[in-house]
Specification:
about 150 residues, alpha+beta, six-stranded antiparallel beta sheet, three-stranded antiparallel beta sheet
């Protein structure tokens, strides 16, 4: 059972919210950054506003949070390292929300990596993905990005 002061979720998995841990592993391995523990993807969206370094030689990295409406071009938001958040739904698959990563993107296609969803790697037309994020009744809660270098 996974719990905090406000929520309790039954699980028979070692890590109940694998998608959140997948994002953590990506940032740890790619940038040497992590974030405090959260109960699920929805909590991650609302509570995590910076990535913290594993090494004392680095500084924390603020995450930029965006929600509908997205007023800039798609590739401003959709770039490697962009974190996509789905809204929770009253279904077994999305009752805790979901989180995934953009790992590659160009004007034609965006590659999304995720854990505990099939398939784990999805290729979307960039315009279609952006349009599905950038609409008032979107299934997406929002996105978070790391600053561009």
């Amino acid at each position: 059972m996974k719990s905090n002061e406000n929520k309790t979720y039954e699980t028979n998995a070692g890590i109940p919210f694998e998608c959140v841990e997948f994002v953590r592993r990506y940032f740890m391995q790619t940038f040497g950054l992590t974030f405090p523990s959260v109960i699920d993807a929805t909590d991650m969206f609302f509570q995590i506003h910076a990535l913290v370094p594993l090494s004392s030689k680095q500084k924390p990295v603020a995450l930029h949070t965006f929600i509908y409406p997205y007023v800039k071009p798609a590739l401003y938001y959709l770039r490697p390292g962009t974190i996509l958040f789905w809204k929770p739904k009253q279904t077994e698959e999305l009752k805790y929300g979901h989180v995934a990563l953009i790992v590659e993107v160009n004007p034609q296609y965006a590659v999304v990596a995720q854990q505990n969803r099939e398939p784990p790697i999805q290729i979307h037309k960039t315009r279609e993905l952006f349009n599905s994020i950038n609409c008032p009744n979107s299934a997406y809660l929002g996105i978070k990005t790391i600053p561009m270098k």
